[in-house]
Amino acid sequence: MAARTDSFDLATLGLASGEGRRLTLAVAPGSFDFGGTYYAVAPEQIEATIDVSRTTHGGYALRLRFAAGLTGPCMRCLEPAEPKIAVDAREVDQPGGGEELRSPYFKGEELDLAAWARDAYALALPAQIVCREDCAGLCPECGANLNEQPDHAHEREPDPRWAKLRELRFE
Length: 171
Description:
Helices cover 9% and strands 34% of the residues. The chain is mostly beta strands.
């Protein structure tokens, strides 16, 4: 595995306009906190493929690709969840191209790879971290795991709109 790289100086590549290069670098996106619940990225250090292309007027077009697992509790049933998330992100940094063509991950020709990898990973995460796609979750009344007890049910409460009828007494 490549040595961990939190930032990378693209000037060291010596790319001319129109040239490109593919790099494999190790990066650590870090852990995540969703609503007070801790999720760790596994493995902690990930091999990322970065495609760097030099654009005209001294800018860069970049593509970042990697896959990493996430470990923590399932948001539906609280069992351990370990989904694998693939990231495919692109950035453009073109000086003089306006705010839309400026990347927040550049300072001069220094790329903040750790921040970009973390943000790209966070954007690739699903809305809910689940142990499996068809996770049934927990019973809202008693907390039973519905994955283990698919036929679990409770007696329905009577409809409160009919409460007065239950008070009627026939003699």
